[in-house]
Design brief:
- The chain is an alpha+beta fold.
- The chain folds into 4 domains: 38-181, Galactose-binding lectin (Jelly Rolls), CATH 2.60.120.430; 245-399, Jelly Rolls, CATH 2.60.120; 475-581, Phosphorylase Kinase, domain 1; 596-825, Transferase(Phosphotransferase), domain 1.
- It contains 16 helices and 38 strands.
- Helix 8 runs antiparallel to helix 10 and helix 8 (602-621) runs antiparallel to helix 13 (769-784).
- The longest helix has 49 residues, at 404-452.
- The model is unreliable at 1-29, 63-74, 404-425, 443-491 and 786-847 (pLDDT under 50).
């Protein structure tokens, strides 16, 4: 009995020991995590979160380590809401592990930004190689859409630079950057090179991994698209069907219900579970000649270029059948390899595995990957399968950039030596002319300041010396506590910072009502009880001193019922704050799209458009004289408690010519509303505002954004789609359904004709804002008219028997508009007061 107990104890102990060992192996297999990651939200002082829940740190608030930390509590935004723009070579630098392969991803999303990013042309380099050459938002990135470029980079040093190099006088940009190491042994040490078209037969082995490779294809064979949420390395896997040459020969296997049993701790990083749980296998019923067909995928690639082809296998078919599968893998015309299941010695079950093959794409620029049966298998099934395939283009010597080191190293050293010699030789001369130089500089300083207030160029960023502790220089540092941005500004409009903080409860988040290109907007109450909107500049938000000065200059000159009233400003230390009247009903955009607000009836929409047109006409022709707004859109039309429209946000406005000539200037505005002629020629006129207003009129009618990338290609741009529908007499089909039965046909015809005239491609064919206002007033008259009008009647065919009283209700055209419009005449000479109220600015996108 005692012997039995001891044996039972020993058996139990041995079983427990094996269980603990197995458990420890499981824990070990699941214990690997990436040692560090760099996720960078470029051009922003706030953090951003992507679809996978990763936090991208704003590069303006980067710390010395710049590592991802879940404890970071800074304010969050959406990824790609900001952009970093360079007009000269600049770089990001990262501290990384030596002798490791890193994944580098560059995010480009040029839409919805003020700068003309579609005109960017630049190169991107790393490790002395070009990652990308001649990057263009349309040709390279893809018609302005969001794009991610992925690279695998083998690094031998402890620092890594990504360099952005604008071409000529163009710019470079980037929205976000990812840098992190791959798990150990992510690539094999070497492999045999394959010539896909069989030109030279076999080829010698090559060393892996390559210095730099660029991901071209990544397919989940036999399964659905896998988003970055389902991959431990945040990769997206596409479906494979589009690349099949013989779809009838293949079928999708039934998805394997269980998680694969990986052999090594890092194997689940090679591909996600979903890749290994689905596959394409031979469709045995498709042919009786089973030994004479394969499943083939064909991939178009750059000709005569080396690529790394990675194929993934997991024999889950054998798990549910007798025996393991053996079949052939074919690459190109000359290479084949017998594939058999990899079986674990630990439990006897198959586990996922992959192979890497360097493949030359050959003369025809194609790589074909096939699987086919041997004709016999241990299971008795003549079949074959594939779970996943990845193809990466190898960056060869032709991609090398010989000038990188010189540009950022030796060249600078030579310059430094030359400067030192020059200073030594010319020291005495410098002392002699120093006094003259200082005098001349002081004399020109005011002139340069005045010119700067009239010039708005691309946002300029200095190179980051390192991505950790370095900081980007800012024009904010040029300002002092006592300085005022404009020497001739009425300082009676200036508030102290203490007053602003009191009004906003120290910029309490509960008072935050919106955010735009200049910064955040808070509601507040001044000491005299006046409700105000406080727009506080945020370093790095996009615009800065130039926008601040421009708004003060313009707003202090204008006063009109349909323009937002300017109350004052604050200019202390690094703070730049604008104070406006507060408008209770928010933006026009909110009322068009917010389902929680009552829908605007057609008559009210017409009245709002008329009010906005009056404000713009006053800017163009009023006492302020020749001001072009340059950013007319639904988020810049604000509504008071009576839904009276007021034009806002003059940070991009320019003083235009008083005649019919143009102003040559860089392109600024919002995509979707931009005048195409201004976009092509950079020649700004009042007619540019007219085009933007035409888009706004169409937006009011249809209640859909100026740009909607989720729609079919032909419908993305509202202006183009609206004109096409009007030409095909289908405009009624795209009108806001909430307006059904409200619009008089004659009013709609007049309104749509006005839109068509505003959206003419040639600015000379567009009406003035006075003409637009006249037409809108007439459309309102048609809507309100008690007697029916014939469809052919318009503003040029008023019946002869029309009463003079009715005609006098229409505003006059031309300069007399200033006299006939009572709203305008009463505001021409009114001085600024501090008793007005301002709107919640809730712009969806920063300018």
């Amino acid at each position: 009995m005692e012997l039995f107990r001891r044996s039972a104890f020993h058996a139990h102990f041995f079983h427990l020991l094996l269980s603990l060992l197995f458990f420890s192996l499981q824990v070990f297999a699941q214990s690997y995590t990436l040692p560090y990651t760099y996720f960078v939200n470029c051009g922003s002082a706030t953090n951003a979160v992507d679809d996978a829940g990763r936090m991208f740190i704003g590069d303006l608030i980067a710390t010395d380590t710049f590592r991802f930390t879940s404890q970071n509590s800074r304010e969050l935004s959406h990824l790609n809401d900001s952009v970093r723009v360079f007009n000269q070579p600049a770089f990001y630098e990262f501290d990384i592990e030596q002798d490791a392969v890193h994944i580098v991803r560059l995010h480009f999303s040029p839409s919805n930004f003020l700068a003309d990013l579609s005109a960017a042309l630049f190169d991107v380099s790393a490790s002395e190689f070009f990652l990308l050459k001649n990057v263009n938002a349309i040709n390279t990135i893809g018609n302005g859409s969001a794009t991610i470029k992925e690279f695998f980079v083998r690094l031998s040093t402890g620092k890594f630079r990504i360099i952005f190099i604008p071409k000529s006088s163009s710019i470079a940009f980037v929205n976000a950057i990812e840098v992190f190491p791959t798990p150990p042994n992510f690539f094999e040490s070497e492999s045999q090179q394959i010539i896909s078209d069989g030109r030279n037969g076999g080829a010698p082995n090559v060393v892996l991994p390559f210095l730099i490779s660029h991901t071209i294809y990544r397919l989940n064979v036999g399964g659905d698209v896998i988003s970055i949420n389902g991959d431990k390395l945040w990769r997206k896997w596409e479906q494979d069907d589009a690349y099949l040459l013989n779809p009838s020969f293949a079928k999708n296997s039934n998805p394997y219900p269980s998680t694969p049993d990986y052999e090594n701790p890092t194997d689940d990083y090679f591909a996600p579970d979903l890749v290994y749980r689905t596959a394409k296998e031979l469709n045995i019923n498709s042919s009786s000649s089973l030994n004479f067909f394969n499943i083939t995928w064909s991939f178009p690639l750059r000709k005569k270029t080396l690529h790394l082809v990675r194929v993934h296998f997991y024999d889950f078919i054998a798990i549910t059948s007798d025996g393991f599968l053996v079949f052939n893998l074919y690459i190109g015309n000359s290479f084949s390899k017998e594939i058999g299941s990899h079986v674990s010695e630990r439990n006897g079950f198959p586990y996922p595995f992959h192979y890497d093959f360097p493949v030359d794409s050959g003369e025809n620029g194609l790589i074909n990957v096939s699987v086919g049966p041997l004709g016999h298998n241990e299971s008795g099934q003549p079949t074959a399968f594939l779970n996943g395939v990845e193809i990466m283009e190898v960056m060869d010597e032709g991609s090398k950039d010989p000038d990188i080191n010189e540009s950022f190293g030796e060249k600078n050293k030579k310059k430094i030596v030359g400067v030192l010699v020059g200073l030594s030789v010319g020291g005495l001369c410098l002392v002699c002319i120093l006094g003259c130089g200082i005098w001349f500089g002081l004399k020109c300083r005011k002139k340069r300041s005045d010119e700067a207030s009239q010039t708005h160029t691309h946002t300029q960023w200095t190179p980051l010396s390192r991505f950790g502790g370095g900081s980007t220089q800012s024009r904010f540092t040029e300002r002092t506590t006592s300085s005022s941005p404009i020497p001739d500004l009425n300082l009676g409009l200036k508030f102290s910072l203490a007053e602003i903080k009191t009004a906003t409860n120290h910029f309490n988040k509960k008072f935050l009502v919106g955010e735009g290109g200049f910064g955040k907007v808070y509601r507040g109450v001044m000491r005299n009880g006046t409700k105000v909107a406080v727009k506080r500049s945020q370093p790095g938000a996009g615009q800065g001193i130039s926008e601040f000065e421009r708004e003060i200059t313009i707003l202090s000159r204008i006063r009109h019922r349909h323009l937002v009233s300017f109350i004052g400003y604050c200019d202390e230390g690094l703070e730049m704050i604008l104070v406006y009247e507060f408008l209770e009903k928010g933006t026009l955009r909110e009322h068009l799209y917010n389902s929680n607000l009552p829908p605007l009836p057609w008559k009210k929409r017409l009245e709002i458009c008329i009010g906005a047109a009056r404000g713009l006409h006053y800017l163009h022709k009023g006492s302020a004289g020749g001001i072009i707004h340059r950013d007319v859109k639904s988020t810049n039309i604000l509504l008071d408690e009576n839904l009276v429209a007021k034009v806002s946000d003059f940070g991009l406005s320019r003083a235009g010519p008083l005649d019919e000539t143009h102003v040559s200037t860089d392109i600024k505005g919002t995509f979707g509303y931009l005048d195409p002629e201004y976009f092509r020629t950079q020649q700004l006129t009042e007619k540019s505002d007219v085009y933007s207003f035409g888009v706004l009129l169409l937006e009011v009618l249809c209640a859909r954004p100026a740009l909607n990338p989720t729609l079919p290609r032909e419908q993305i741009n509202l202006a183009e789609w609206g004109l096409r529908c009007k030409k095909m007499e289908l405009l009624e089909e795209i009108i806001d359904p909430k307006l059904e039965g409200q619009i008089d046909p004659n009013s709609l015809r007049k309104y749509s004709d006005t839109i068509e005239k505003c959206l003419q491609d040639d600015a000379a064919n567009r009406p003035t804002m006075a003409d637009v206002l006249w037409d809108l007033e007439y459309a309102l008259q048609l809507q309100q008219s008690a007697h029916p009008r014939m469809p052919h009647e318009d503003s040029e065919t008023i019946p002869n028997d029309a009463s003079s009283a009715a005609i006098r209700r229409f505003p006059s055209i031309g300069p007399s508009m200033l006299r006939d419009d009572p709203d305008m005449s009463q505001d021409l000479d009114t001085h600024l007061t501090a008793t007005e109220v301002f709107s919640q600015i809730k712009a969806d996108y920063g300018r």
